[in-house]
Amino acid sequence: MSNKKSLVYFQSGGPTAVINCSLYGVIKEAEKHPEIENIYGARYGVEGLIDDNLIDLRKQDPEQIELLKQTPGAILGSTRKKLPADDNPLFGKIIETIQKHNIGYVLVNGGNDSMDTCLRLSRFFEEKKMDVKVMGIPKTIDNDLEVTDHSLGYPSAALHIINTTKMIVEDAKAYKKGKIVLIEIMGRDTGWLTASVDLLPEDCRPDLIYVPEAKWNEEQFLQDVKAVYDKKGYAVCAVSEGMPVQHENAIEADAFGHKSMDGCCVTLAELVKNKLGIGSRSIELSIPERADPLFTTEIDQKEAIRCGVFALKSVLQGKTGYMVCLKRRPGTAYQSITFLSPVDQIADKTKQLPQEFLDDSKHMSKEFRAYIEPLLMVTKQRHIYEKNGIYKSARFSSI
Amino acid sequence: MSNKKSLVYFQSGGPTAVINCSLYGVIKEAEKHPEIENIYGARYGVEGLIDDNLIDLRKQDPEQIELLKQTPGAILGSTRKKLPADDNPLFGKIIETIQKHNIGYVLVNGGNDSMDTCLRLSRFFEEKKMDVKVMGIPKTIDNDLEVTDHSLGYPSAALHIINTTKMIVEDAKAYKKGKIVLIEIMGRDTGWLTASVDLLPEDCRPDLIYVPEAKWNEEQFLQDVKAVYDKKGYAVCAVSEGMPVQHENAIEADAFGHKSMDGCCVTLAELVKNKLGIGSRSIELSIPERADPLFTTEIDQKEAIRCGVFALKSVLQGKTGYMVCLKRRPGTAYQSITFLSPVDQIADKTKQLPQEFLDDSKHMSKEFRAYIEPLLMVTKQRHIYEKNGIYKSARFSSI
């Protein structure tokens, strides 16, 4: 039996605009290593390992592999499954898949929940004395992973949010007597994404910014938003979806057991209408925040590829139980260094906006702007469209 | 007194991605005509004529004028004001503004409601034997203007919707057991915008398309969406905001007087959850549909400029009471001809999707696809961004 081992890569958690860029990096690097027997992608995250649902990545069309760089979603499929305790029969099924395909390397591309999968797999293989190396590649638009300077996918999501917010503000300014517009931005526990709109120039930025890390006070909100509206004839607020807005305060009908699907901005919009008597509009930026391949930033794309490459090189060197992280090189121009951090420092933890990034409800601090601005340059890559204006995306065979 | 007369241009109704392109065309053409005394823009549509709120367009920075081509919103401000009957004192104020500034030409850039303003102004000036020519420039993302082949702003809005829908579908496919996703698209009375998603390739298009012109049956909807879900593990529907969805069927609490701000897809999402017991998600594409300058199509931009130019040339030739329209030249490659139509054939009328464009609830007809496809090519213009990835937009002085 040869020393060759096979590689399996999988995607986990919510998609981002650049998760398929990391896959691109992994494939391109793996092709350079004859010591890798087969290059597999597992379908639907760890479920593919459990169900022996793998596809052969060497067999994919090179043109499709290039298109990964502008393909949103998780092309291999993703999962929100959390692994149970080690004695669960699922692990027996994982061992079967590993042995059947002679897998020696596992790459887990995901966020903080997915790093728990990465941690459990690496510990399990070590305990069982199986020669299988496991490595995490960071991915989450929320930017709430510990240790790493930022998460892959965050800069691109932020750029989508910033530009879309600018469009909404420019539209809102069209009427002499406008509305109070409430823009709901992803981030259940952290305000990293919402904070990004602070970068917009003064005349087309939201008037008020609400993140979970700052104090929330409904009366203060109503007072502030009214003050802006009275002065300008319209107002725009950027609001993290995780703001602790009291739904009951806004809609009496709730007492009758109506389970609302409304987000916090729908509630705030009703509050504004009922308490201030001012027309309001709630806009949830929603899925395109994490799925827009056309606002991929130059740095996000390059780093996503580089982290994929680095993860692969690391398992080939025998490393296991780490996640690839980024830190900034000292100096004025932005440059990042890739390094490894033990995944137990990251799994299931949440990094919030530090207090020095907060200013008041109208602005983030200049430290925050210095942090995010270098990450945002749009990619120089010319996007590839069909003749009818639809962006092209990759299609794999056997999917 | 010289024969020179001044020009006033204004914007009216909902903004589009290319309304400022028509303004660009008007300014560039007007600068070539020394017989025009002053080139004015009225702020907030006809309100600027009533309130004598005009700005001098000759005084604007040429770089800002170039940026109009990628500036969303209505840079001069817009209005939803409808003009009252002729004997209203407002008309006295309009006459004052007209005389004070020696205005001989009025260009109204708007949709079907705004063409009513165009009609009333042209009739009023004729009745009063005032030498003021009035001309409409078509603008509405809804594409529901009569006579013209299509409306300026429709192709760009459609391209935004098609691409954003593709992103949402690619994201929705990521999970083995996904959701029923309901995408709400603008169009209260017509399905032109919603229909556009039919162009997407089979593997990333909505499974079901609902437009107001087709029959709506709630039971059928539930049956169809369940069939798709059972087969694929997820389903995506594109739904016109104007679908006659019965809110009461979905949320009992309504009987208690809760005035909901929910759109039809929020209602459908609750219906799916309650009646089918399947997870659902409502996504309203909202304001960016009409305000995304980055999906401006080549033809929409060029035609918006050309219609502005043509409107100006027409009033200079003494024409009044018309709207500029487009028709296709016969032949295979798309080319359009500009012509004038009396504005009373257009004002306050609504053009629906013709029956031959409808197929079944899963597809539009090939005639529809042949109609829309040539309009959609993305602009070759390279968009201009700030270094931090934010698209640039025009800023006028005195605004």
What does this structure look like?
The structure is a homodimer of 399-residue chains. By secondary structure, chain A is an alpha/beta fold. The first copy, chain A, folds into two domains: 189 residues, 3-Layer(aba) Sandwich (Rossmann fold); 138 residues, Phosphofructokinase domain (Rossmann fold), CATH 3.40.50. Helices cover 34% and strands 18% of the residues of chain A. The first copy, chain A, has 13 helices and 13 strands. In chain A, the strands form three sheets. Chain A has a seven-stranded mixed beta sheet, with helices on both faces. In chain A, α1 crosses α12. Chain A is elongated and about 75 Å long. About 3% of the residues of chain A have low confidence. At the A-B interface, α6, α10, β9 and α11 of A face α6, α10, β9 and α11 of B.
List the SSEs and their pairings:
The structure is a homodimer of 399-residue chains.
Chain A: E1 5-11, H1 19-30, E2 36-42, H2 46-50, E3 54-56, H3 62-67, H4 89-100, E4 103-110, H5 112-127, E5 133-138, H6 154-172, E6 180-185, H7 192-195, E7 208-210, H8 218-232, E8 235-240, H9 247-250, H10 264-276, E9 280-284, H11 288-291, H12 298-316, E10 322-328, E11 336-342, E12 358-360, E13 363-364, H13 366-372
Parallel strand pairs in A: 1-2, 1-4, 4-5, 5-10, 6-8, 6-9, 7-8
Antiparallel strand pairs in A: 2-3, 10-11, 12-13
Helix pairs in contact in A: 1-12
